Amino acid sequence: PSSIALVKVSLKELQNRFDESGENDLGNLYLTPQETERFRQFRYQKRKVEWLGGRIAAKCAYLQLENGSDDIFRQREEWQRVDICADPHGKPYVSIGQKKGFPLEISISHSGEIAIGLAASEQCGVDIQKISQQLERVQSHFVRPQEKHYLSQIAGQHGPQTALSLLWSAKEAVKKAVPRESAPGFMDIQLLSFQQKGRGYLFEVAVQKKGRQAESLSVWTCEAKGFSLAITLAGRHL
Fold first, then answer.
1. Nearest to 55 by CA among 83, 28, 34, 18
2. Can you say whether the dihedral through the CA atoms of 46, 50, 51, 57 is positive or negative?
3. Cα gap 110→139, rounded to integer Å
4. Cβ atoms of 91 and 180 closer than 8 Å
5. pLDDT of 100 strictly over 60
6. Within 10 A of 14 (CB to CB), how many other CB atoms are there?
7. Average pLDDT, stretch 123-142?
8. Which residues have CB under 8 Å from 52's CB, separation 6+?
């Protein structure tokens, strides 16, 4: 959709920047004082790189959507104007000055050597997952029996690992888009149908929220260079 901005950050390249410039220099460029305090609390450099990469991606996406441009911002003042906070449930949001950066919303994900940031004009969710055998071992925790028929059709084209990864990412994106106080579990999200759209698939899912009637959502998913990617906008049929 035209009302979103999606940005990818290479964590491998960011790690190289860590080695060349030092983490403090990078933090001083991209992070607000509040974010810098959180950044310094991480003990392991791998976690620091993942966390910073997600913030850079989300801030860049936010600024691009806010300005209606694909430009990559280089000024320290632009990066530090955007403060990414977390609500009591851990969901990230943007704060500008003393108020939330309404109406734009963000979502963050990372896997392997990639971090993704999504900005949208409504509640949104993004997930990226490196395709591997790991999900085959835990599929009973996120695959409903009714979904196996759809997975077998996708697996016929892309293999079972990719099919599982697409479903996992789709459900993760939905969980991020729904308010955390009523967030569903994996088994509360059911794939109802899918169709090919562009180079990916459009999943239609039913979401059973806590204490509410089930709602339907669209999730766009695709396989890209060994990763599954999923994007959803709450309340929007893509």
1. 83
2. positive
3. 20
4. yes
5. no
6. 19
7. 96
8. 14, 23, 26, 27, 30, 31, 39
Q: What are phi and psi of 186, to 5 degrees?
A: -60, -40
Question: Order of strands across the sheet with 83-86?
Answer: 83-86, 92-96, 99-100
What pTM was computed for the model? 0.91
Q: Are 132 and 123 in contact (CB under 8 A)?
A: no
Q: Which two tokens stand for residue 42?
A: 């991480």
Q: Kindly give, in sequence order, each residue whose CB lies less than 8 Å from that of residue 148, ignoring residues fewer than 6 positions away.
A: none
32-83 pLDDT per residue, tens: 999 999 999 999 999 999 999 999 999 999 999 998 888 887 788 889 989 9
- Residue whose token pair is 């698939």: 201
Residue 53 one-letter amino acid: G
Instruction: Note the maximum CA span of the chain.
Output: 53
In the sheet with 227-233, reading across from the earlier edge strand, the strands are: 124-130, 227-233, 215-224, 200-207, 189-197
Indicate the helix (H) or strand (E) that contains 51.
Answer: helix 45-67
Cα–Cα distance measured from residue 62 to residue 47, given in angstroms and rounded to the nearest whole number = 22
Q: Which of 227, 217, 9, 7 is nearest to 122 (CA)?
A: 217
